[in-house]
Amino acid sequence: MVGYTTYGKLQTELKNYFLKTGTKLQFTEMTNRMAELGMLTDIPAEFKIPRNFETMDEDEFEEIINKIPMQLTSHIGSPMQKKVSEDTIIPNASDVFTIRHPRYTRRFSHKHNYFEVNYVAKGNGTFIFEDENHVMQEGELCIIAPGSTHDFIIEDDSTVYTLCIRKSSFDTAFFPLISRQDLLSYFFRQILKGTDRSNYLLFFSGNGYGMRAMLHRLLIESIRTDNYSNTCCNAIVNLIFTELMRNYSKTVRFYNYEMDSDFSLVLQYIQHNYQSLTLSSLANFFHYSEPYLCNLIKQNTGFTFTELMKRLRLKDAVSYLENTDIKISEIAELVGYNSADHFSRVFRNEYKMSPLAYRKKQQVDNSFVPFSTE
After folding, report:
1. pTM of the model
2. Closest of 244, 95, 236, 255 to residue 182, by C-alpha
3. From 1.25.40.10, 2.40.128.120, 3.30.390.30, 1.10.10.60, which CATH number describes the 272-365 domain?
């Protein structure tokens, strides 16, 4: 049975049920209850998107969310599913779907075949991952890999936005995201290999307006039905993830549950010390054996230690070549090579040209004269 309600009515019923009974219902249980009581309508409520939603504060935007129509499908008598498919959550023509996470729901750990992103816009919420609890505060954002057993519980009137992102569309819709050389890209590439290891990334992005504004726009775009909404959603997701890596990469926590190890400290140490780092010094610093550390790096990034060092060094070298006039010998030293000759050989093997030739090519390709009539 399919019926309609609004965000506000569903949330009111969840809260009132808890206040009256002292117990909570899961989202699907409340859907079934509302259907049984005849609380769902056949036609969605009329809703007009206000033009000024991007400039609203969280309380003002909350009132807008409460008026958004929701389409609910009840399955009265059917058991709750611990495995959720992206096709039951994300609309057919969409790569991304964004909701305000329901409050006052009963804990029900589950897993699904899509990426889930939770952002705490106001207050806090409890992130449950493989039976371990972490209270996420305002400004924290968590990216959960497909196949991870988890839940998210909100005990009060806090606001959490949840993004559901198709795993199946990542190769095309989010190619720029997975083609870069940074932690987020490594994370997504490893997940997309189909390993189905339980993983998450946790960022603290602060409580600035910028991130909340992007989430507001993403939620609104998720309910639009025109030909541009999916393109807008994909662009906003790319902006959010780029913002995380540009400004908040030092706050990231990376977890691989099966290996029982928090890998973020290792990777952050590598990223900040790669210029002079050796496998031996890294192993000594973290008190790991070298074989175990090699395995840890390979499983979490897809690269050997040597490959990872090369990629990090060349990534920064390319940035220096494209954006500065620093001498080649100085770039070699800055990124950790003992000599300019060694750096040039490694660079040529990777890019099929010398660092100097690469710089000249970039200067020609990127040359632009404003207001030129030619």
Report:
1. 0.73
2. 244
3. 1.10.10.60
